[in-house]
Structure formats: C-alpha cells, structure tokens
Write a structure and sequence with these properties.
Blueprint (H helix, E strand, L loop, with lengths): L1 E10 L2 E11 L3 E6 L6 H9 L6 E6 L2 E2 L4 H5 L2 E4 L11 H11 L4 H14 L15 H13 L5 E5 L7 H13 L6 E5 L3 H7 L2 E6 L2 E6 L1 H8 L4 H19 L1
Parallel strand pairs: 3-8, 3-9, 6-7, 7-8
Antiparallel strand pairs: 1-2, 1-4, 4-5, 9-10
C-alpha cells in the first residue's frame, strides 16, 4: 500500500536519506523510529509530496506521488507534527472546505464531518475559530480532516504531540485499528512504548538508512533486548560507532 524505493535526499554534501527502501502492507501498521535527524520526517515529507527526493520513488496504492500527485493524494490522509491550519475559519468550515477538495458528495460529507467531530470531541467547538483552538485541538482537527475521505493509507508524523489522555487513547486505537480491512498506517514517533503497543512492524532509521525492520517481538528476540528502548539505544549507538570508525 505504501512503498518507498531507493529514496534519497541530499542537501549539498549532507545526506538526509540514503537509499531508503520500505513497504507498508495492506492491513498493517508500521512505526518509523529513529533519533532526531535520522530522516523520519524527511521520508514522510517525500512520501506525501512536500519534499522532492533527490533519487528514488514514493508510491501509495501503486500510484507514484511525484508523477501523479493528485491521484496519489486521494489515496492517503496525512497529519504533520505541527498542523498549520486556517485560523480565521471555524473547525466546521475547514472540514467542509477539505471535503470539497476531496470532492465528497455533500450529504456524505456532512454525515462524515458530524461523525468525526463527535469522535474527536470537537462538536462543541465546531463553530469556533481555529485560532482559538489549543494545540491539542488543532491536532485532533487535523486527524479528523485526514480521515474525511476514509483513505486507504494514513500517514502521520509524531501524532501524539500535545494530546490529552482521552485523545491519546483515541489515537492509539486509531493507529492500531485503522489498518484493518486492508488499509495501511505509517507513523513516525519518538515514543517507543507507543510502537510496542500498536505497531505490527517497526522500522528503525539512523542517518538516513534502514537499520532494522520487523515486529517488536522479532526485533527484541533477534537483538537480545528487554524492550524497544534498549534495542533502540543499542543499535543506534553501535551504528554511530561503526560510522565514526569508518570515517
């Protein structure tokens, strides 16, 4: 459902992504892990059409994001780590605008908007201007907007930032359950416990390269780690030491 092939991004001599290959299968939730500067957000921005890769391909539902951007973007919903929304619109107005962009029939759009406002506990604030929303409310509105058209793939960058406990639980359930029925979820996170709880597979990226890929249980068994934190620290430290020796 989501496919990255030899994806690279260079800024002069700096390599942000170095031939990343990754696949998220239908029916799967995959967590993208890595330290700051590992290339997680770069990979996601290249995947959703915000940052043109220097090399390689990004496909969603078999459609090349950079060759057929409109068709590809109809296949997925995207939530950035920092949602930048139109502050002078109300939440309801923004959702109606997004429904128009996705060309949803009006009756279906109104029913879906009402459903999502209730799901994310935003119905009382639907007519309020977005500039009055807290960060957590904006994050929830972004999630609602990404789900309007019931996309086949859901792509999220640090989805838990600024959420209250209720919203955190709701998003956990979403990450775990949305991939059912043949859909796919890809999310980048620093929260290792979140990956252990809701991911079918974990991809660890370091310095733009894929270091490890597998289910949390498989990775812990292969590397003799007690939990994902120990696994994460061990592999990234070993990879960093190896690259420093080579340099």
């Amino acid at each position: 459902m989501i496919y990255l092939e030899d994806l690279s991004k260079r800024y002069g001599s700096f390599v942000a992504l170095d031939g990343l290959n990754l696949e998220v299968r239908p029916g799967e939730t995959l967590a993208l892990l890595g330290p700051n500067g590992a290339g997680k957000s770069t990979a996601i921005k290249a995947l959703v059409g915000l940052l043109r890769p220097s090399q390689g391909r990004a496909l969603v539902g078999g459609v090349d994001v950079w060759k057929e951007p409109v068709r590809a973007k109809a296949q997925f919903g995207y939530v950035p780590d920092r949602p930048y929304l139109y502050g002078k619109l109300s939440g309801l107005e923004l959702l109606r605008f997004a429904a128009g962009v996705y060309r949803l029939p009006r009756a279906r759009a109104e029913a879906r908007i009402e459903e999502l406002l209730v799901q994310f506990r935003l119905e009382r604030f639907a007519s309020s201007l977005i500039e009055t929303y807290s960060h957590g409310m904006r994050q929830k509105l972004s999630l609602a907007m990404s789900l309007l058209h019931t996309p086949q793939a859901l792509i999220l960058d640090e989805p838990m930032v600024g959420l209250d406990p209720h919203a955190t639980r709701l998003v956990k359930d979403l990450l775990r359950d949305y991939s059912k029925d043949g859909r796919a979820v890809l999310y980048a996170t620093h929260q290792l416990h979140l990956a252990e709880q809701v991911a079918d597979r974990v991809a660890l990226v370091h310095r733009g390269r894929l270091l490890a890929l597998g289910s949390p249980r498989e990775l812990l068994h292969q590397h003799g780690s007690a939990d994902l934190e120990e696994f994460f620290l061990r592999l990234t430290e070993d990879a960093g030491a190896s690259q420093n020796v080579q340099a």
